[in-house]
Amino acid sequence: MSHHDHPSHVHHHFENETQQFDSDKMGMWLFLVTEIMIFAGLFCAYVIYRTHNPEIFHYGHQFLDKNMGALNTLILLTSSLTMAWGVRAAQLSQQKTLLWMLGLTMACAFGFLGIKYVEYSAKIHHGTLYGDRYVWQTDEHGGEHGASGDEAEMHSLAEAAQDANAVHLDAMAGGTQLTDASMKLPSSQYAPAPAGPEGFDINEPAEAKAEEATHKFEQPAKAHLFFSIYFIMTGLHGIHVVIGIICIFVIFVLSAKGAYNSTYYTPVDLVGLYWHLVDLIWIYLFPLLYLVD
Amino acid sequence: MSNKSHHHEPGHPTVGHVSPLPQLFMVFGALVALTVLTVGLSGKLPGTTGMLIAMGIATIKALLVALYFMHLRYDRPFNGYVFLAAIMFVACFFGFASLDTATYRRDIAPYEANKLMESEGKPENMYKTARDDWQSKHGGEGTSLHTSGEDAGAPAEGH
Asked: Which is more confidently placed, A251 or B143?
């Protein structure tokens, strides 16, 4: 072991900087694999629920705006480019370029979250939420959304069922309000639905369109499942975006202090890997949630 | 490709691979083009085909990101093996879960319809109707999950 050519940024337990760099990177890849496993569980839930209830996904995805999703995809891809460019700048000791690229990456990340905020707000407003927070109404009783949704739900339920068993029925449906349409059991709502009803242009999936469409579309029982999956998957992804922003910000501050150059840039590289993985997961989330047909 | 440049040029790293800018831009261009393609194709192809093509496009995009933005192509091969091993385990996970889902799928829809009917106080032949309906769409014979066990009789045989 030669100690005289041991640079200051190489820890004493490493032979040389190559060994240190390779170890750091391998550790990061092992961590990324655990991230892949976390999301794999959610993707698997998606596959199973979709196999059992394809109609729920065809129904639910109309509430997502394909254009917003595509725009967010482009924003994340751009941020991946700037991040990769930032790593290159760090490798070449291009301090100014590095700061610009990290800044642009953060700007893109905030842009992504901004669009997600708009999308989430629309869903909160319309009551297309996860689990029993799902209060989307398709009939006349459903003029009201939000807080009074439960009341309207109970009202229409009692009317439709006309006996005490209806409460049990409600429990069976997992809290979804039952409209007249969904009372028509069982073939239409339990058998996988056809790709989409005639006369409805599936290419215009915005929330406003969905409101109109639900008169033609029969709301499947358990429609809230789609939104549970949507919010958990995009929510966990969103948390990763936030963590990414924090990491990039730390790197940004340290870069401004001149911490990274061609002899030592490992943290920039590792944060870059993390950021690319966030992008990679979105690459799959986008078609699975927004482009169901 | 070698991932270590042993010639120590000033301003050049001693470890890692530096991506040329044109390459980064080309990869980005391809990613954008593929995104436009997948959005353009959505809704134009029948169900399963469309989904398979969308997943194929997503996988090409993921590979581009992993190989070039994440430097896997120029990295130590071990990192690539780690990544591939993860994908393999995910495939096993999905494969076995789907196998289970496919095995019991035909029983679940009729079962749920039956329970709902029961709770409504109309336990006639809805179970059978739902099962026949499902089978006429998908073919095959549903295994009779309910001919034995606690739910037996009530739905299929009437009252």
From this structure: A251
